[in-house]
Amino acid sequence: MDLGTLGAGLGAGITVLGAGLGIGRLAAAALEALARQPEVAGDARTTMIIAAALIEGVALFSCVICMLLVVMK
Amino acid sequence: MAGNNIYYNQSTEHGNNPSPTTNQVQANQHVVNSAHGHGQLAPGDVFPTLLSSLGNHRHISFFNADISELPVIIYDSKVGFHTYASSSSMVNQKLFTMHQDAYGHFHPPIRRASDNQPVSMDLSVTSLVVFEWIAIIVVLFLFGWVGRKYKKNPTKAPSGFQNALEFLVVFLRNDIVYPNVGSVKSAKTLLPYFIGLFCFIFTCNLIGLIPGGHTATGALAVTGALAIIAYFVINITAIKEAGIGNWLKHLLGGAPIWLCPIMIPIEIISMFVKPFALTIRLFANMTAGHVVLLSLIGLIFFFKLSNGMGVGLAITPISVGFSIFMYLLELLVALLQAYIFTTLTAVFVGLAIGEHAHEEHAH
Fold this sequence. Notes:
By secondary structure, chain A is mainly α. Helices cover 89% and strands 0% of the residues of chain A. Chain A has a domain at 24-66. Chain A has helices at residues 3-36, 41-71. Chain B contains 10 helices and 7 strands. Chain B starts with a helix and ends with a helix.
């Protein structure tokens, strides 16, 4: 196994760490907002999904880079 | 590779090499390139073989049965414009060449026979294009059918599938397009686009989950095309809504004029990053699920080939269990990604319009 593959694996792991932390914090904040003000449920959900999609998008960028490291060596 | 001996003895029965020992590497290549491993594989080749079924193919197949080869359309600066009914008829005409693997499947790039250079443009119909057409036909059929029901009985309450589609359209209108786009006039104009976008992406995603189907949205070309359309929709709506002058002013991002050397490049980059992010998000989400699913199924074959039948059988329930879980997750992702692509496009349209309206107030 070469260093590129190792780097790709580590990179995917670190990406997941960051994305998980980000989306976890986001969900926690949204739940808190929902618990305090149940009447904004719809708005909070939409905003949360959009923000989660943006975080996920960045995470997927790096996953694609990791995949390229393995595929295109 | 440790397992060379295991499979090339059998794989040569597909190839035309009389002496396998001298052509070992070539035989390897044939089996790895093929999407359908009829022969026995080395454990290390299980995953590449499975994953090769994800890409774009020059033939339509249902599981292992090849149904038909697809037409080839080539434009080349030297030889000109050519169309062929199939890859094999193209190769038979001897004007272009294409790599053919041991199972008779063709693999790009197409090359000129005269100087062996790749052709300038390969516009061929590929398997993903066919599955896009299937998705388009499904959407048109469903909406045409339901639309005819409304035309026949405009006052009757909707029933059956009509209810489902009406719920979908009303949801898209009231929860995605109108609140996010902001301007009612533009929202009304753009509503058919958003409904079409959502239904097309959702149908493509779902067709990929039917066994034997392919996910057209799992290709960068398809998601890229969708994002380019979104890019034009966003900017043309913004220009129509606010005028070309305000649209150009928007490039300043509301900053003072002396900041323009920094602001204009940033705003122009951000204009292109939005559709680029849309492209990658949809592509990566649809591909990642399939890669995980195929890897989980591949584990069965990997363990069978490397550790014997018993271990393969033992791993099967675990593998299938995880696969079912992933499959259900993918059903959710198929809906969620269609929703996110539509919502984000609507949000971007709203942002583009909203900022102009804001600037109009400022002046």
